[in-house]
Amino acid sequence: MEEKVHDGLLFDFYGELLTEKQQSIYRDYAFEDLSLSEMADEFSMSRQGISEMIHRVTKLLHGYEDKLGLLAEYQRIQTLAREIAESDDLDLCHSKASEIIRQL
Question: Which of 5, 61, 80, 104 is the most exposed place for a label (fewest CB within 10 A)?
């Protein structure tokens, strides 16, 4: 399940780089939980074609992340922000906030 959540986040970051058809198919797969048969009927494709499209799109999304790293950077900044919010140490808060700002 964790992998599907991760792939959904990748779609949130990089989905606009896909064609409209790729976006629609992946959205139905990842967020609507439609079966291959349902999607094949909807898009007038074979189940095999839908399956291959999903695998191709997943590979594209992972490739974009490998090259650009936006999700990893977002998660790193979220972790630092959470540490700042939970900390009572002002010096620690200042150094972590400075780290976030330097990276932007």
Answer: 104
